Amino acid sequence: MMIDKIIKILKTRKEIDDWKIVQNDDDAQELFFIRKALDMNRAKSTQKFFVTLYHDFEENDQKYRGSSTSIIYPTMKSDEIEETVNDALFSSKFVKNSPYPLAKPSKMEGHFTSSKYSSGDLSEWIHKISEELYSADRFMNSWINSSELFLKRNKFRVINSKGVDVSWELYKLYIEFITTSKRKGEEVELYSIIENSDFENGEIYEKVSQALEITEERANAISMPAVKGLPVLLSGEAVGEFLKYYLYKSSARYFYEHLSTAKTGDTIQGDDPSGDMITMYIDPSVNGSSYSTPYDEDGLPLRKVKIIENGIMKRYWGELKYAYYLKVKPTGQLTNFTVNGGKISEASLQEGRYLKLLSFSDFQSDPMTGDFGGEVRLGWYNDGESTVPVSGGSISGNISEVQSNMIFSKEIQKDKNFVVPKMIKLSNVKISAG
């Protein structure tokens, strides 16, 4: 076995104090469509070994742990592997991290999430998925212009010099598609992404239908008017991107690297907040999330952990290395997160004047500064009497200026790697006209 050959070579290098190997076997099916015509059908199968070696040394009475990661391919011969290992060992001598341990074998197993994609061939599944995707292409004035579908099965194995040896299997569906609508001879487009790790009847159909409806509405939208002082209702994927700020605020790595100043016990939403308080978890087993995983890349088994409760930071989360530096229990490295909903319905949040935003060209939230914003692709402007679709213009703000009185909908949405409220009501947001 290739992995045995790598380990044998690693053990011959006395300067290697520890090592870790992450084996990744990747099988993929890919489909590319132009309108409804299949343009390309491709299958791929790859295997890689990510080898990290650790070298401990001392300079000026200061202890360090250096490390370096290389990729080894199954086609490489022994002399090529040896050369790669030697290069990595040389590079590791220039890395000066404070010492930290590797994961050790645990009696606790990771929480495995089953997937329907594990039954049957990937090629059968991806064709079934494409049929559901295009079954939603039924509108008169909007259509799917093109699409790319990727269905992957990743088999992982993590083995290290401390005795860890764990294996697991993950599935990921990733769809990119462009929807188009025409108004008065002019076409508008919307770029959308769907990600999941499990098949749920109707889910893809519903998301594509929504994208087609939004594209059609955007074609009929007016330019963003010059409005001030309106509450902004953030919805869709932007909610998860906005709330990700708090995930990074409580990261052990961000705190250690002085990118976050949040400490355990802090009120993470500032002084005297009057709106809804955040309760956030990291969760390795969110159903349908393609980021769900029973172990992290160190081989640590993962569990759901509460990191913020009612606006109070309860603990740091992060990989073994940074948890060790902060002298806290490691949670492992993962990106799934959930945030509890509020007490008010979406319908109640849409009473009175508001600007509801459904789609952005690229909504971003800076995890270090708290700055957020994006160009509006589609929103709804309510002036107190009527509601019209709007496009163009942008919003911007800083989380520190809006977090004290933000309101969460009680309804919840699941998308990509998060489960969060479907809508957040924000005040003090700058709105720029289109």
Sheet of most strands: 10 strands, mixed
Strand content: 35-45%
Kindly report the name of the CATH homologous superfamily of the largest domain.
PmbA/TldD superfamily
What is the CA–CA distance across the termini? Answer: 61 Å
Taking all Cα atoms into account, the compactness measure Rg is 25 Å
Low-confidence stretches: none
CATH-defined topology of the largest domain: PmbA/TldD fold
Determine the structural class based on helices, strands and strand pairing: alpha+beta
Helix % is: 10-25%
Per CATH, the architecture of the largest domain is: 2-Layer Sandwich
Please tell me the overall pLDDT: 95
How many strands in all? Answer: 22
Task: Based on Cα principal axes, name the global outline.
Answer: globular
List keywords for this structure.
10-stranded mixed sheet; 9 helices; 38% strand
Describe this structure in words.
- By secondary structure, the chain is of the alpha+beta class.
- The protein has two domains: 2-219, 2-Layer Sandwich (PmbA/TldD fold), CATH 3.30.2290.10; 223-434, no CATH class.
- It contains nine helices and 22 strands.
- It has helices spanning 2-11, 78-92, 122-135, 203-219, 237-249, 252-256, 320-326, 346-349, 399-402; strands spanning 18-34, 37-59, 62-72, 142-160, 165-183, 186-196, 222-223, 232-235, 280-282, 305-309, 312-313, 337-339, 354-360, 364-365, 371-382, 387-391, 394-398, 407-408, 412-415, 418-421, 423-426, 430-432.
- Strands 7, 8, 13, 14, 15, 16, 17, 18, 21 and 22 form a ten-stranded mixed β-sheet that branches. Strands 3-2-1-4-5-6 form a six-stranded antiparallel β-sheet.
- Strand 14 (364-365) and strand 15 (371-382) form a beta hairpin.
- It is globular.
- The mean pLDDT is 95.
